[in-house]
Amino acid sequence: MLNHKLIEQTEVFLKKTFEDSLYLNAEGHLAGKNYRLEHTYRVANIGLEIARKEGFDETEMVIACLLHDISYCEDFGENGWIEHGRRAAQLARPFLAGLGLSEDRINDICYGIAIHVDDKADFEGERTPFALSVGDADNIDRFDVYRIHEILSNDGFLGMEYEQKRDYAKKRLEKLREIIDIPLGTKAAEELWRSRLSFYIQFFEKLVSQIENSKSIIF
After folding, report:
1. In 3D, which of 50, 71, 54 has the Cα closest to residue 62?
2. Which residues form the HD domain (predicted)?
3. Whole-angstrom Cα distance, residue 175 to residue 75?
4. What is the pTM of this model?
5. What pLDDT sits at residue 207?
6. What whole-number distance in Å separates Cα of residue 163 and Cα of residue 20?
7. What is the fold of 4-140?
8. pLDDT for 152-202, tens place per residue?
9. Over the stretch 4-54, which tens digit does the pLDDT of each residue have?
């Protein structure tokens, strides 16, 4: 069962942190703030789905996912992105203590947040299925309909020449086929991952076919 009060408190904390952030509210960063919040909610909903299927505490999983990127309130600097999971855990820990959660649950939540970027934490913890699911939910969100639009737009797909479009789509397709069967922290996450990747593969297969039919008559 979801503890709506604790989740609402976490939402308020997250949004206030972003609203109070000088970095996120600086000129040129507002779109990034909106995107980060939208991404966070998608990850939380994926985490909730995993928790329900695996029997994890649903409230704790939603809270962990809501806080996994809270460190985006700060300027990472030149090489800071790789540290943002560990920094997010540091920001989350005192808030979690204020919610009245037990120390072992706080540590499991923070460990999942800390390792979600590069699988490393700066404190002792266990790679429990729960902790691994924070990163799994984050990674699963990389493969949805929204992200297809985002990557094609950001990579300038429509401005590419024919050969560039063809090679780009083929490389994407090759990579997707390589990673569809990677192991994740739970069976539920693996099912979601393969479902998302299968959709992506189908999309890029059709895209490659359409591109190849755009140059000449195929006899």
Report:
1. 50
2. 36-143
3. 31
4. 0.93
5. 97
6. 46
7. Hypothetical protein af1432 (1.10.3210)
8. 999 999 999 999 999 999 999 999 999 999 999 999 999 999 999 999 999
9. 999 999 999 999 999 999 999 998 888 889 999 999 999 999 999 999 999
CB atoms within 10 A of CB 206: 11
Domain boundaries along the sequence of the chain: 4-140, 145-212
Q: Which of 39, 38, 44 is nearest to 64 (CA)?
A: 44
Going by C-alpha positions, the residue among 120, 176, 137 that lies closest to residue 45 is 137
The two structure tokens encoding residue 44: 């939380």
Query: What string of H, E and C letters represents the secondary structure of the chain?
Result: CCCHHHHHHHHHHHHHHHHCCCCCCCCCCHHHHHHHHHHHHHHHHHHHHHHHHHCCCHHHHHHHHHHCCHHHHCCCCCCHHHHHHHHHHHHHHHHHHHCCCCHHHHHHHHHHHHHCCCCCCCCCCCCCHHHHHHHHHHHHCCCCHHHHHHHHHHCCHHHCCHHHHHHHHHHHHHHHHHHCCCCCCCHHHHHHHHHHHHHHHHHHHHHHHHHHCCCCCCC
Dihedral pair phi/psi, residue 54, rounded to 5°? -100, -10
Tell me if 176 sits within 8 A of 182, measured CB to CB.
no
The 3-state DSSP class for residue 182 equals coil
Token digits for 100? 């009245």
- Residue 80: name the closest of 107, 132, 32, 118 by CA: 118
What single letter denotes the amino acid at residue 98?
G
Q: What is the amino acid identity at position 210?
A: Q
